[in-house]
Design brief:
Elements lengths: L1 H18 L4 H15 L2 H6 L3 H7 L5 H8 L6 E10 L2 E8 L4 E9 L6 E12 L2 E6 H19 L3 H6 L3 H7 L4 H11 L2 H5 L4 E5 L2 E8 L2 E10 L2 E11 L9 H20 L2 H7 L2 H8 L11 H6 L3 E5 L2 E8 L2 E9 L2 E2 L2 E2 L4 E10 L2 E4 H19 L3 H6 L3 H6 L6 H5 L11 E9 L2 E8 L2 E10 L2 E9 L8 H19 L3 H6 L3 H6 L9 H9 L6 E5 L2 E8 L2 E10 L2 E11 L2 E7 H11 L75 H7 L5 H5 L23
Antiparallel strand pairs: 1-2, 2-3, 3-4, 4-5, 6-7, 7-8, 8-9, 10-11, 11-12, 12-15, 13-14, 15-16, 17-18, 18-19, 19-20, 21-22, 22-23, 23-24, 24-25
């Protein structure tokens, strides 16, 4: 009834003014202006239309917001009146000594005897631009914003949703109550309401309002919908980074996806998980894995405070929960349902941070099965499967090189001993380590994330005298065993393939069969290695046979290891050392061992006599007895001293007929060779694992005794 009474009162006032010959429209403006100066809300309502009351005066504290508009005060002078229709007028007035201009829009009855204010047009200068806005439009904006902030401070879900656009409200309404309330209180507090000083900027049906808060700044975007302002988005800039909200819409969309994922994970709903995750993440384990192997405290996580970080098409959700933090990584689906630049996000990774561990969900699901398949394949001798389950490096350096015969010569007993029992799991980002019991041994299987796949990168075993890394050990053991196998089978192609360029140049390229001294080395390398030692780009594998030791020395070039020499030593006696490389060089130079049989340089010309085979003294088939080039093999020069007799010569009891001759002095050897190269020179000083540079004496070859 109050609006009717107010309207009747305004008619009576207009009638009295009319008796004094003051135009009714002028009287209506004067009455409204007087109520405004007195801050009398009831009189203002009496002098305005229902529309003005609804949009500008609907709150009891509307006078506070009217003051913020800066309506001028003072004496009113009507400048111009224009009829819009029989019931509408536009009245241009000037107010106060500064002659501020306002334009009133009045509405009256058809007789024109009573008028009330329906709106006021006022010009404002902002940033050098003059803009004309109505009082109802600005008041509705301020009142909507104030009500929105009050609802946020009180976490009033219903009131907040009512102040939003339909689309924004639909987005916000997807949040559970606990999350909705937590986000609401980040928007505003009761203290923020006490210092309500908005700074609006309007552009047609869009407005952006900035407002300072105790802990930062609030930025609210509003849209005009059916002549009313509705909140369409907001951002919170906080002095505390964890309370920042860069974009509420994106934040809520991300949180909703995170919440939906957690609920689907708890329920084991794989269809829902498939819709929320990228195909790569889903197929890496969510599609088939036992979800209990990666347990999540879903209820506690949903009640925790979500923190969102977004940049470009990538976003991350961090959910702290006591001593753990769950990270959910999202990527925007750019072409969702055929719509380009979609705002839909998909989950591409989930990581649980627990202390100093980083547990990736994909690693937890895939690594256990991969490790089991790999272990079974090695135990069963299926090395092609082991290669597929391994990283490219591990597969190329080790498993692609193996066959059953070679594997039987390698120390892999611990990996063949039986099924594995998982003792513990350690996660370090892209590296996952399984500590297992395998038979009587303890081993650690290491898996690495390789382009999204969990692949075995190494196996660690504690064996005295060897590196823990199976990969490191086998990288030198495999070429060493292939070298020894080539010697044993008289296959010099394999020997050359697995020896260094220097060893090849000085020895193996000059021979077409395995010399006896090399067979003696093979006989000493039948046991498992006693020691494997690495020093930068060199390595040494030691095999023990009785009181003697064979030391296979390897050198690395790029990623390839090759045999550079073999030493045979009397254990505990540093003077009793024989080098295979120098021994064979000496034997080739002296003629004790033979080289290639025949060398034909080119095919004979048609009709010409075929040339005689070119032979060199010392080859397997000696020159004709009558040939002037025939000679007896040269004897190795003696290096014994009359004053210092040599210790007993190094003998191989296992193969007494195939001893390794001792090394001759380098100077004497160099005088008997006709080829020198930088590789030969480097072979005498690069490796820290080579023989001692100086020996106390030389040994007498067995066949000389």
């Amino acid at each position: 009834m109050k609006p009717i009474v107010s309207f009747v009162a305004s008619l009576l006032i207009s009638a009295l003014v009319g008796c004094q010959s003051i135009p009714a429209e002028t009287a209506a403006i004067q009455n409204f202006h007087a109520a405004l100066e007195k801050e009398n809300l009831e009189q203002l309502r009496a002098q305005s239309t229902e529309r003005f009351q609804r949009m500008a005066l609907r709150r009891t504290d509307a006078m506070e917001d009217l003051k913020k508009l800066g309506l001028p005060k003072g004496e009113i002078q009507v400048v111009e009146t224009a009829d819009v229709s029989p019931t509408e007028k536009h009245v241009q007035v000037e107010v106060g000594a500064q002659h501020h201009k306002l334009k009133y829009h009045l509405v009256g009855d058809p007789t024109g005897k009573s008028w009330v204010v329906d709106d006021i047009f006022m010009k404002q200068r902002r940033g050098g631009v003059i803009d004309s806005r109505t009082v109802t439009e600005q008041m509705d904006l301020l009142i909507t914003l104030r009500g929105f902030l009050e609802a946020a401070a009180a976490a009033d879900r219903e009131a907040l949703l009512a102040a939003m656009t339909e689309d924004f409200a639909k987005t916000m309404n997807t949040l559970p109550d606990s999350t909705f309330s937590r986000l609401s209180r980040k928007i505003a507090s009761q203290e923020d309401l006490k210092r309500f000083e908005p700074d609006p900027k309007l552009d047609r049906d869009l407005a952006v309002v900035r407002m300072h808060r105790l802990s930062g700044e609030l930025i609210v975007t509003l849209k005009s919908v059916d002549d009313s302002w509705k909140v369409d988005n907001l951002a919170v800039e906080s002095r505390e980074d964890q309370n920042d909200i860069k974009n509420m819409r994106k934040l809520v969309n991300s949180m909703r996806i995170g919440s939906d994922f957690l609920l689907a994970y708890k329920a084991g709903n794989r269809d829902a998980l498939k819709a929320l995750a990228t195909p790569k993440l889903f197929e890496s384990g969510l599609a088939f894995a036992d979800l209990s192997t990666f347990p999540l405290a879903v209820d506690e996580l949903l009640a925790a405070d979500f923190q969102i970080r977004a940049e470009g098409r990538i976003a991350s959700i961090l959910i702290p929960n006591g001593k753990e933090t769950l990270s959910i990584d999202l990527v925007r689906d750019e072409f969702h349902d055929g719509e380009e630049h979609s705002d839909k996000y998909l989950i591409e990774g989930v990581t649980l941070y627990r202390g100093d561990q980083q547990i990736q969900m994909s690693a937890a699901f895939a690594s256990r099965d991969r490790m089991q398949v790999f272990a079974d394949a090695v135990r069963q001798g299926r090395y092609d499967v082991a290669r597929i389950m391994s990283t490219p490096d591990f597969g190329k350096q080790v498993w692609s090189q193996l066959n059953p015969e070679l594997a039987a010569e390698l120390p892999l007993e611990e990996l063949r001993s039986g099924p594995i029992e998982i003792l513990s799991v350690d996660y370090r980002g892209k590296l996952t380590s399984y500590r297992v019991r395998q038979g009587d041994s303890l081993a650690t299987y290491q898996l690495r994330n390789w382009n999204g796949e969990q692949l075995i990168d190494d196996v660690l075993l504690t064996v005295p005298g060897r590196p823990e890394s199976i990969k490191q050990s086998l990288q030198v053991l495999i070429p060493a065993r292939k070298f020894l196998g080539g010697l044993r089978g008289d296959n010099l192609d394999d020997v050359r393939r697995y020896t260094s360029d220097d060893f090849n140049l000085l020895v193996w390229r000059q021979l077409d069969k395995t010399p006896p001294a090399a067979h003696a080395v093979v006989a000493m390398c039948q046991q498992d290695p006693a020691h494997i030692v690495f020093d930068q780009d060199t390595a040494q594998i030691s095999y023990r046979s009785g009181e003697r030791e064979a030391r296979v020395q390897l050198r690395r070039h790029d990623d390839r290891w090759s045999v550079d020499d073999v030493q045979v030593a009397e254990r505990g006696n540093s003077t009793q050392i024989a080098d295979l490389k120098q021994t064979l060089r000496a034997q080739i130079a002296s003629g004790e061992i033979r080289g290639h049989r025949n060398l034909v340089l080119r095919d004979p010309l048609p009709g010409a006599e075929p040339p005689a085979a070119i032979q060199q003294v010392g080859y397997e088939r000696d020159a004709d007895a009558a040939s002037p080039y025939r000679r007896e093999p040269r004897q190795l020069p003696s290096t014994e001293s009359n004053n210092n007799p040599a210790p007993p010569a190094l003998r191989l009891d296992d193969l007494p007929s195939l001893p390794i001759p001792v090394s001759v002095e380098a100077d004497a050897l160099d005088q008997q060779t006709t080829t020198e190269s930088p590789e030969i020179l480097r072979a005498h000083g690069e490796s820290p694992l080579r023989r001692p540079a100086k020996r106390t004496s030389s040994l007498t070859p067995i066949w000389k005794q």
